[in-house]
Design goal:
It is a single chain. By secondary structure, this protein is of the alpha/beta class. The chain has one domain: Rossmann fold. The chain contains 9 helices and 10 strands. The longest helix has 15 residues.
Length: 269
């Protein structure tokens, strides 16, 4: 390939072919991410994708960039450590609803409030797909299709956007794998944002949650992008979880450790 030519989306894909189930929404998320990287014109050696465990966390193997497939729930601390050590890199963390909101829930909270300059993509299918269909933190309490919870969980679902806002995130967006062009644009905006950008992606599991194909008719655009925390709190609290777009964007001071002398940390603007 001629090094002088701009990279295309296909140039960010490795030779390893994805092995997700046919119809899985993660294929579209993968394609949207490569399109976003191409749009931003990032060199492959400038990008690092960090993941945890789960179907979605296979992503680093499929990208021709730096990548690290970590352990369950630990994508964000790994990504934060990398960003601290190599601030010049574009760092993206990726995972699923179980990885990010259950075992990784505490890391999610503190990544929001710490506000390092990285992007977190969570592919949410409201189920543990890789381990055969158990209810996840975002599963509706009345869902009864799992053998482990045949009467439903009876527990209110985790609300990612509301939690992210309460924890201090400055960029919160929601996309849908069934609208890949719109999702690619959201990912561009998230990566360009200076600070912690959270992108909640509705990504149907056709194997264990076939009813999610109905999301295509249910998702909808929301109100114009909001910048005031009080206004967005009211919108998110009354939201049905299917509103797409940038839900909240607010400039904030980015936290990045700077080694001036041993033990010295400071905040940068």
């Amino acid at each position: 390939m001629n090094a002088s030519l701009p990279l295309q989306a296909k140039d960010y894909k490795s030779s390893i072919k994805p092995v997700w189930c046919p119809g899985c929404g993660h294929y579209a998320v993968f394609n949207a991410l490569t399109k976003a990287l191409a749009h931003l014109g990032l060199a492959r050696e400038e990008v690092a994708l960090i993941s945890g465990i789960g179907c979605s966390s296979r992503l680093p193997a499929y990208l021709n960039t730096y990548g690290f497939h970590g352990i369950h729930g630990r994508a964000l601390p790994l990504a934060s450590g990398l960003k601290a050590a190599r601030p010049e890199l574009t760092v993206v963390a990726a995972g699923g609803d179980g990885d990010g909101f259950s075992i990784g829930g505490n890391h999610f909270l503190h990544a929001c409030r710490r506000n390092m300059d990285l992007t977190y993509i969570v592919m949410d299918n409201e189920v543990y797909g890789m381990t055969k269909g158990q209810a996840s933190p975002t599963t509706a309490p009345e869902w009864t299709q799992s053998k482990l919870t045949p009467h439903g969980t009876g527990i209110p679902r985790f609300r990612p956007a509301a939690i992210a806002l309460a924890a201090g995130a400055g960029f919160i967006a929601r996309g849908f794998s069934g609208k890949p062009a719109d999702l690619a644009k959201l990912l561009v905006e998230a990566i360009k944002y200076k600070g912690f950008a959270f992108v909640h992606v509705l990504s149907p599991c056709r194997t264990f949650r076939p009813e999610q194909k109905g999301w295509k008719e249910q998702v909808h655009s929301g109100d114009p992008e909001l910048h005031d925390p009080l206004q967005v709190t009211n919108c998110i609290q009354s939201d049905d979880g299917l509103t797409l777009g940038v839900l909240y964007r607010h400039p904030m001071s980015v936290w990045q450790p700077i080694l001036q002398h041993p033990g010295s940390l400071e905040q940068i603007e």
